[in-house]
Design a protein that fits this description.
about 300 residues; alpha+beta; Glutamine Phosphoribosylpyrophosphate, subunit 1, domain 1; 4-stranded antiparallel sheet; about 35% helix
């Protein structure tokens, strides 16, 4: 028995602004990621390896704001964040503000498995990456014309943009995966390029354990996507785990309270993907849409974009 869910971001995703061709591309990207994770779980692999494999595919797919498709910051660079957590032992690894790591989630995995630390940042994280043989890429690899135009549109202003597309400024660009493996273990991974035109080394919720990413075999695995500042303030991922552990909530009850009530109350927009130890899947979001896909314990696959 195994379960897997993935996401490619939440926000203002309007079907009237989406061409059939572009929608097909997004669904193809989700399918590549779901299949990568599923192939590991099918062969008895670990939830940790499955979520990493899924997120690597999303990082490599230029339409999603992570890895290759990462957005530009205020000075025209890419600063990427990622995190990974294992529910069986509560081990975690995270990186933030890395500029030249091809797959930040793989470096987060190295932090978890090959260091005594949980989070590494900036130049120090990249120096560690060289020590462990991480794959580096130059600025040209991360460049996409769509992201560059987004940055040009607002680089001379004080605005920042949470968007995949120029049509809306409310697309939260993050990718993630959660999995339950056949051994009964949970894991979660999240990766992001952050916000277009962000400044001052800004870090959102994605690499922060308990805010944007969390996994615990006793409760759930969570990967968030949304306005990172609000998800940080609400400690979203851990709040859901705590509601399950200390108040006896079901996964659905906990997700609904946090995403549809607590976040809404502080004007926090976005969503998350969640699994519990019984294989239950929840994909809640309070925005117009969320790129998402899952495969349940019976092998049934689901793909969705809009509400």
């Amino acid at each position: 028995m195994f379960t897997l869910a993935i996401h490619g971001g939440a926000g203002t995703i309007n079907s009237s602004l989406m061409t059939p061709e572009l929608e097909a591309q997004y669904l193809h990207g989700l399918s590549l990621a779901l299949n990568a994770g599923k192939s590991i779980l099918t062969s008895g692999g670990s939830a940790t390896d499955a979520v990493v494999a899924a997120v690597v595919e999303l990082e490599n797919f230029p339409l999603f704001n992570a890895g290759k498709g990462a957005v530009f910051n205020h000075i025209g660079q890419h600063e990427m964040d990622a995190a990974l957590m294992s529910g069986s032992d509560l081990k975690a690894g995270a990186v933030c503000g890395v500029k030249h790591i091809k797959n930040p989630v793989l470096l987060a995995k190295a932090v978890m498995q090959q260091s005594e630390h949980v989070m590494m940042a900036g130049d120090g994280a990249e120096a560690f990456g060289k020590m462990v043989g991480a794959e580096f890429a130059d600025d040209a690899y991360f460049h996409t014309d769509q992201r560059y135009q987004q940055w040009l549109d607002i680089r001379d202003t004080d605005q920042f943009q949470l968007d995949h597309s120029a049509a809306s400024n409310k697309k939260m660009g993050t990718v993630g995966a959660v999995a339950l493996d056949s051994h009964g273990h949970l894991a979660a991974a999240t990766s992001t390029g952050g916000m277009t035109n962000k400044r001052f080394g800004r870090v959102g919720d994605s690499p922060v354990i308990g805010a944007g990413t969390y996994a615990n075999d006793a409760t759930c695995a969570i990967s968030c996507t949304g306005h990172g500042e609000l998800f940080l303030r609400a400690v979203v991922a851990y709040d859901i785990s705590c509601l399950i552990e200390y108040k006896g909530y079901t996964l659905k009850e906990a997700c609904d309270l946090v995403v549809m009530k607590k976040l809404v109350d502080i004007k926090g927009e976005g969503g998350l993907i969640a699994l519990d130890a019984h294989g239950n899947i929840e994909l809640p979001f309070n925005s117009d849409g969320m790129y998402r896909a899952s495969v349940d314990v019976n092998g049934n696959e689901f793909f969705g974009i809009y509400r």
